[in-house]
Amino acid sequence: xxxxxxxxxxxxxxxxxxxxxxxxxxxxxxxxxxxxxxxxxxxxxxxxxxxxxxxxxxxxxxxxxxxxxxxxxxxxxxxxxxxxxxxxxxxxxxxxxxxxxxxxxxxxxxxxxxxxxxxxxxxxxxxxxxxxxxxxxxxxxxxxxxxxxxxxxxxxxxxxxxxxxxxxxxxxxxxxxxxxxxxxxxxxxxxxxxxxxxxxxxxxxxxxxxxxxxxxxxxxxxxxxxxxxxxxxxxxxxxxxxxxxxxxxxxxxxxxxxxxxxxxxxxxxxxxxxxxxxxxxxxxxxxxxxxxxxxxxxxxxxxxxxxxxxxxxxxxxxxxxxx
Length: 323
Hints:
The chain has 11 helices and 13 strands. The chain is an alpha/beta fold. It has 2 domains: 1-168, NAD(P)-binding Rossmann-like Domain (Rossmann fold), CATH 3.40.50; 170-204 and 233-316, UDP-galactose 4-epimerase, domain 1 (Alpha-Beta Complex), CATH 3.90.25.10. The strands form 4 sheets. The protein has a 7-stranded parallel beta sheet, sandwiched between helices. Strands 3-13 form a two-stranded antiparallel ribbon. Helix 1 (15-26) links the parallel strand 1 and strand 2. It starts with 5 loop residues before the first strand and ends with a strand.
């Protein structure tokens, strides 16, 4: 009887990590779910483990023992004001270095690094971002991600451990936090919203499409030793997002065409310049290299946003994780 492959998932208590652990277990994998603090999964296929400081060599060596693949999803997410570059380096770069070294020494078959489109570009970008777009990160978060990518490729080159780097755009779905969670709460309000005239288009990525991508990359030879942008098929405006979220709740969109310049000026006046840039500027990414390996999204942005809105509105059900 063939043993089930065992996969290490770091960052298992995070938004992406929790969804990923469930999905891999449901797909028949054994999962070692690692987080900084103890995490318990009520699932016989999942082994919860406290990771501690992963930038220390002995911790990385311990956690990779006996696994067939590593999905490194842990790290400091997003650019945050007041956090020094050294913090991003310690969490996003040094930990990746130790984990990749340990994976190589343990002859792990596949190492998947969860990076970000911010390793290439800033909050906005003129033109379409593809893997051929020169990397020019604009903040400490993006610089730490591109450094982690380079370390992964360098340390695993010529070894028995294949690597893949994923650069997702903004990921959304049930349980998401940060800016997308705030937007979902805004869409859940009963009030008209002034976004009908906003023209900025952004690529998003549903958690369902990301999970399908990870399973694809685990299976497909053409996805090894390469870097991939990951995004839903088509970019959307803020108005498209609100419409989809409200439709998911069975409600009208209630969007008002306030001039874009007025909204941008108001946001800048109250110190929300980055939000103004996100609403008015473009960040369009094309997962062309991923499609060339045979990948296709499993759901549209409108479908996934509507589903996320419905699940967020539903009474909480049983959760297989406690942390």
